[in-house]
Design goal:
The chain folds into two domains: 210 residues, FAD/NAD(P)-binding domain, CATH 3.50.50; 131 residues, D-Amino Acid Oxidase, Chain A, domain 2 (2-Layer Sandwich). The radius of gyration is 21 Å and the shape is elongated. α1 runs parallel beside α4, α1 packs across α8 and α3 crosses α8. A hairpin with a 2-residue loop joins β14 and β15. The strands form four sheets. Strands 5, 6, 13, 14, 15, 16, 17 and 18 form an eight-stranded mixed sheet that branches. The chain has eight helices and 20 strands. The structure holds flavin-adenine dinucleotide and 2-acetamido-2-deoxy-beta-D-glucopyranose (2 copies). One 2-acetamido-2-deoxy-beta-D-glucopyranose binds next to β8.
């Protein structure tokens, strides 16, 4: 490739943004991100931002996750305003029935004792952290822009091909085709459909489930600690497992309540099921009373970007010469975004990645 080549990136989520950040950091500056509704307008702005160094160690994600955890620490040193903090992480079991309550005290000061049946330290602040995904996306994009990266708020609706190369993109608000030399599809849960539509020769199997998850942002009246909590809450109808992450600005983020509703074309059309958000608030209230009485700042839902084998897909689209893809990060996309972007930048610019071994994520595995 030439240094003047125009790289078009579809998707302004953590994956597209990280890719532009590292490509431009490596000196390539002719890049445009095409994003249909806004930077981090979907999962990348609605995620929890919980990071764990070792929790993927037993899977093929080990190298990617460890490399990405290290990159997050690098980013935090470079940009101190990301609301990044190292946190202890606990499992907290609660029961609707007060009589199940444990006699041993929980070590977490802001957790209510009266419904807690067990607490267990899952990991310490040496190995788990919490970042604000939205601040991170905004920071990376502003640095990328200062290096020359452009952002176009527009939807890519068609591609023009010649000789196995994509040569142009058509935008929804434009009648002209925009020339590109390299295309990167980082369109989150919309990636599979885009590939099926425009690159049908690559028979990418669809993710097994189209998972939607709910989240709420609460502002409790009393202050909470920094610990991230993985709650198991037992009711008469079963056990649910919300995740509770205090945020540096004094709010508390709670997510869980998964369902399988068809993905709309536009992220702005995703409407959360308000009752599921209320359930989350009530469940979290069993771990910390202040959460059930807190001001509700946001109720929202977003989709996990999946893949058929639940592993990311990072690499060149088979049968194409200049099309790359990066998606399928499920519930670890904020953690694994930076290393994914850096690996992809290295693959495109140098033909191989030294940040980590991307072989397990090759799009070729589905052929
Ligand atoms: C409730 C919840 C909590 C989570 N918590 C965590 C967490 O604590 N830690 C963690 O590591 N991960 C977490 N995740 C996962 C993480 O949010 C995702 O893996 C990650 O955000 C995916 O990023 P992405 O860039 O692939 O996709 P997205 O953020 O979905 O971005 C894709 C973008 O592409 C755009 N787009 C699509 N098609 C087109 C087109 N044709 N033209 C132009 N633009 C287009 C969309 O508008 C969208 O903005 C969570 C996810 C959810 C749902
Ligand atoms: C907490 O709850 C989970 C899920 O029900 C269970 O597997 C685990 O054993 C419980 N932990 C303790 C210490 O009771
Ligand atoms: C399409 O809309 C976006 C955002 O409004 C703008 O950046 C872009 O220049 C527009 N393109 C055209 C040709 O109008």
């Amino acid at each position: 490739m030439k240094s003047s080549d125009h790289i078009g990136i579809i998707g302004g989520g953590i994956i597209g943004i990280s890719t532009a950040f590292y490509l431009s950091g490596l000196g390539h500056d002719n890049i445009t991100i095409f994003e249909q509704c806004g930077i981090a307008c979907h999962s990348s702005g609605k995620a929890g931002g919980f990071l764990a160094r070792k929790w993927c160690d037993e899977t093929d994600l080990r190298g990617l996750a460890r490399a990405s955890y290290a990159l997050h620490m690098e980013l935090k040193s470079e940009f101190p305003d990301l609301d990044y903090r190292c946190v202890d992480t606990f499992q907290v079991n609660t029961s609707e029935r007060r009589s199940d309550k444990s006699d041993t005290q929980t070590p977490i000061k802001w957790v209510a004792e009266d419904h807690v049946t067990a607490t267990k330290l899952l990991d310490t602040s040496d190995h788990t952290a919490k970042v604000s995904p939205k601040l991170l996306c905004n920071k990376l994009i502003s640095v990328a822009k200062s290096r020359g990266v452009k952002v176009s708020i527009s939807k890519v609706v068609d591609v023009k091909k010649s000789d196995g190369h994509v040569t142009h993109l058509l935008l929804s608000n434009d009648s002209e085709y925009v020339p590109v030399d390299i295309l990167i599809v980082a369109a989150g849960p919309w990636t599979t459909k885009f590939i099926h539509q425009h690159f049908p020769e690559y028979q990418l199997p669809a993710p097994r489930a189209q998972t939607r998850a709910h989240s709420v942002v609460l502002r409790p009246r009393s202050s909470v600690g920094t610990e991230c909590l993985f709650q198991y809450h037992t009711t008469t109808s079963g056990t649910v497992d919300p995740e509770i992450y205090p945020v540096a600005d004094g709010t508390v983020y709670v997510c869980g309540e998964v369902d399988y509703v068809e993905l709309p074309d536009n992220p702005l059309d995703i409407k959360p099921d308000s009752a599921k958000c209320d359930d989350l608030i009530s469940q979290a209230g069993y771990a910390a009373n202040c959460l059930s009485e807190a001001e509700v700042v946001t109720k929202q839902a977003c989709y996990l970007p999946g893949s058929h084998d639940d592993l990311p897909i990072i690499g060149r689209v088979p049968e194409s010469r200049n099309v790359w893809m990066a998606t399928g990060h499920t519930f670890w996309g904020i953690l694994n975004g930076p290393a994914t972007g850096k690996c992809l930048a290295e693959l495109i610019l140098f033909g191989k990645s030294k940040t980590c071994d991307v072989a397990p994520f090759s799009p070729d595995r589905f052929l």
